[in-house]
Write a structure and sequence with these properties.
With 411 residues, this protein is an alpha/beta fold. The protein has 15 helices and nine strands. It has a five-stranded parallel sheet. Strands 6-7 form a two-stranded antiparallel sheet.
């Protein structure tokens, strides 16, 4: 409810429930983000006590509720499943609103018949007096998942378990709740990341992703299987290579998977599952021989990706492109060694500020080439300090390492 309390549409909705004006709120969120819960909490507003509640769930063959004048709170869930007659009824209500109408419509954007139009095409002709807002639900952050784990597990919750919960659920609240329900029933005094992995795929998530995959044509499913084998968002060319399809057929299959919400564009140009745990559910249903072929093609794709990252022949992983500060250091011009005290004094006979350093590469690996009489300088990934030696082969070179046991000592 915290996100709702900060929403700009809450004040107009309260006014409408008090009989002043009319408002429409479109609550948008993918599966499991808590749309139904948000509607339920809105029905508990103090201003809603004096208004006529109208609750409707589309696609359930309910008797159509009566609408009329006076303050009314219209809560409509699952608009993406609305039948044509239900859509026409909602259109009529919103095109001819009355004073005191507060309408809230919730839907899944990935399952709309016409993307971006909750009630289909053509767009609804909203009157000027109707205030229209859109509220997009977001996934939970790590801190929010940690709070939910503490509430459900108490002292059994650990930071690593909360981090693993967020990683495998993608922060989707319903998936987090289902996993916590399984962990709550488990034994042990502490819940670890291994316990989260052993919890498996929640039934609700597995049935959703498998039903969306099964809705695809048989020729389009290998793209979804390829995403499950890779287990992480990948570029289109990589998906099609693992799926074993030609570019034209693979493009059509990827478009079909996106239209059916079997896959999603997780980031720009990279496609996969918005909930990483969904890949496990799909992979378990792939026939064995097909899975072996997918794994073989995936190994070749990942090998090419790694070779391109090292040799510069292809796109580098994002960690390398960003500099990979944690765990490695990029090549750069050597700084003057900065130790405490004067920079030109000799320190235990190990270096002199008068010597210059020459940089070169040792084969294909990082490090400073040892040369005589020039000194050898490099920085330590653990301490970030510089070390110089006038004696060749005297001190080991600190290579791209996390700093543990790297052979450098603090100066």
């Amino acid at each position: 409810m915290t996100a709702v309390q900060r929403s700009p549409w809450l004040a107009p909705l309260r006014l409408a429930l008090g009989g002043s004006g009319s408002v429409l709120v479109l609550v948008e969120g993918t599966a499991g983000l808590g749309k139904s819960r948000a509607l339920h909490r809105l029905s508990g507003l103090p201003e809603a006590a004096g208004a006529r509640p109208v609750v409707w769930r589309c696609g359930t063959a309910q008797e159509r509720p009566e609408t009329g004048g006076g303050p009314a709170l219209l809560l409509v869930d699952d608009v993406h499943r609305a039948a044509p007659e239900e859509t026409e009824w909602l259109r009529g209500v919103l095109e001819r609103p009355w004073e005191g109408l507060a309408a809230v419509l919730a839907y899944r954007p990935e399952e709309l018949g016409t993307r971006g139009l909750p009630l289909g095409a053509p767009a609804v002709s909203y009157p000027p007096a109707l205030a229209v807002f859109r509220h997009r639900l977001r996934v939970w952050s790590v801190d929010r998942v940690r709070r939910a784990a503490s509430e459900a597990l108490g002292e059994r919750a650990t930071p690593e378990a909360a981090a693993r919960l967020h990683a495998c659920s993608g922060g989707v609240p319903q998936v987090v709740a289902d996993l916590l329900g399984t962990l709550r029933a488990g034994p042990g005094s502490r819940c670890t990341a291994a316990d989260v992995d052993a919890a498996g795929v929640p039934v609700r998530l597995a049935e959703l992703v498998l039903s969306r995959t099964d809705a695809l044509a048989p020729a389009d499913r290998p793209v979804v299987w390829a995403a499950a084998v890779l287990g992480e968002p990948a570029a289109r060319d990589e998906l099609l290579s693992v799926a074993g399809t030609d570019p034209a057929r693979g493009r059509a299959a990827l478009l079909a998977a996106l239209a059916r919400a079997a896959l999603s564009e997780v980031s720009q140009g990279r496609y996969g599952f918005s909930v990483p745990l969904a890949a496990t559910a799909v992979l378990e249903r792939v026939p064995g021989p097909v899975r072996e072929e997918l794994h073989g093609r995936a190994a070749r794709v990942l090998a090419r990706r790694a070779a391109g990252a090292v040799g510069g022949g292809g796109p580098a992983p994002r960690g390398h492109a960003a500099g990979a500060r944690a765990g490695s250091r990029r090549w750069r011009r050597p700084r003057w060694p900065r130790w405490r005290g004067a920079t030109t004094r000799r320190r235990s006979g190990s270096w002199s500020g008068r010597w210059r350093c020459r940089r070169s590469r040792r084969g294909s690996g990082p490090g400073w080439r040892r040369c005589w009489p020039a000194a050898r300088w490099s920085d330590c990934a653990r301490t970030g300090r510089w070390r110089c030696s006038p004696r060749p082969f005297a001190i080991p070179v600190c290579r791209w390492t996390s700093g543990a046991n790297c052979g450098w000592t603090s100066a």
